[in-house]
Amino acid sequence: MPFDLILRGGRVIDPSQKLDAVTDVAFSGGKVAAVGSGLRADPGTQVRDVSQFIVTPGLIDLHTHVYWGGTSLGIDAEEFCRNSGVTTSVDTGSAGPGNFAGFRKHVIEPSQVRILAYLHVSHAGIFGFSHRIMVGESEELRLMNPIEAAKVADANRDVIVGIKVRVGLHSSGTSGAVPLDIALQVADEVGMPLMAHIDHPPPTYEEVLARLRPGDVLTHAFRPFPNSPVTAQGTVKKAVLDARERGVLFDIGHGKGSFAFKTARAMLANGFYPDTISSDIHQLCIDGPAFDQVTTMSKFLCMGMPLSDVIKASTENAAMALRRLELGTLKAGSVGDATLISVKQGQFHYEDVVGEHLIGDKKIVSEGVVIGGRWWHPN
Q1: CATH code for 59-322?
Q2: Average pLDDT estimate for 186-212
Q3: Where are the domains of the chain?
Q4: Could you tell me the superkingdom of the organism this chain comes from (predicted)?
């Protein structure tokens, strides 16, 4: 089969294949066709010289909010993904069983970018999150809708990858871990993983971790005090180490209030890398401090996390968390998505959610996107 597109001569970093080499990547029929040197172009093949760039599997942002127009925190997925090199945007609970049909019809299905979703166990998802209104959807237990959530998740398995719940003082008030227990019942019923948000106690970081199962995701895992995963002495809490040992996954979910350099430095110093790096992009953090996925990745690169591990946390590891192993890789036959990045050297300003500033010497920049085996952006 002739190739539709060849990316010629880039530095290909694909952690799923332990590959870091200057080579070509070819696409055909919407999938990765081959990776190798000197791949032959046919008369109809589009060839792009990408020798100045790094080619990675299509970036996966495991925590986004892209129910644009349906919730006040939603951003436009295509615009965000063009700027951030993301080919799969995973919406985490913007919609619940009461409004998922609209999210699917009006946003997911028309999108050129792949959108997958964690379905919120609350009836209308995260409905009260804006500059002026902050209503924790998990505060009111009457909004928990486990029966309909299970039905909707089961009926939409092609795009729903798990169940989402938010717990903490700001999102569940004095309900504590009760919404988490309800969401876990739904996840068990439909055989899907759970993603749990955590903010200020109650419940505690430890109480949430104790409930999570292998393959479940704790997002906002590197958050600031209170509910930080590190001790005052800078060590990783035992409950965190125990949870990782039994297979709980730790996601960044930067967002507006959930990532601190102090926490991240301590975790990395202890050799505890995040399983997945995600932006938690939404209307209240897209203009800072999160900005986008590549900026979030850049922060970890500047704190000493190796580039290959940063890429792995946004490709292979994210695909494993989603249980979609056809994503996050450039293996022949996989989904034909790729991201082109460059790593700029210089002085770059970064900020976390508590106002700490970091001057980093590197910045990851999105240079191009391939979706479904076709060059998508920029033209």
Answers
A1: 3.20.20.140
A2: 98
A3: 5-56+333-377, 59-322
A4: Bacteria
pLDDT at 379 over 90: no
Tens-digit pLDDT profile for residues 228-249 = 999 999 999 999 999 999 999 9
Residues annotated in a binding site for Zn(2+): 63, 65, 164, 197, 220, 280
Q: What is the pTM of this model?
A: 0.98
Determine contact, residues 52/342, Cβ cutoff 8 Å.
Answer: yes
Q: Which CATH number fits domain 5-56+333-377: 3.10.20.30, 1.20.1260.10, 3.40.640.10, 2.30.40.10?
A: 2.30.40.10
- Residue appearing with tokens 């964690």: 118
